[in-house]
Amino acid sequence: MSGYSDDEKLRLQQLRALRRRWLRDQELSEREPVLPRRQLGPVAAFWERFLQPGGLWRHQVFKAYQTGSFVLIRVLVPAWIILYCLKYHIMKTPHGVVMSNPRIFPGDRILETGEIIPPLKEEPDEHH
Questions:
Q1: For an engineered disulfide with 4, which of 8, 16, 65, 82 has Cβ 3.0 to 4.6 Å away?
Q2: What are the pLDDT digits (tens) for 19-62?
Q3: Are 106 and 117 in contact (CB under 8 A)?
């Protein structure tokens, strides 16, 4: 017996029809794809409206905004964090901290000049 039986022929024909239908279903109509509406945040919505066609200056403002935000986020904030960590956690004496001189009382000797601090004058008319 050579060739396919009637049942096999019917099965193959049905498989071909299913494949053709599946391929036709893969083609998109003009209404597809149906995408959900894009929800923009307040900043993105502002720039979306601002950058509508109408002027070169709007794009220059947008470029300046992008550059400024890049510099702030990628340069200044990390530099501030690094400086803070260095200043308050790593360095022994933080930058900008002034060590105060020792107190000088009457009768003390100044080491550099050898001068002795005279006693304070008491003024009888002032009271405490």
A1: 8
A2: 999 999 888 888 887 888 888 888 888 888 787 777 777 788 88
A3: yes
Structure tokens at 78: 């990390």
3-class DSSP state of 103: coil
CA–CA gap between residue 107 and residue 115 (Å, rounded)? 10
Percent of the chain as helix, strand, coil, to the nearest 5: 50, 0, 50
Residues 6+ apart with CB under 8 A from 62: 47, 50, 51
Residue 109 sits at φ, ψ, to 5 deg, of -105, 130
Counting Cα atoms < 13 Å in the Cβ hemisphere of 113 gives: 5
Helix residue ranges, H only, the chain: 6-26, 42-50, 56-71, 77-85
**For tokens 């900043």, what's the residue?**
43
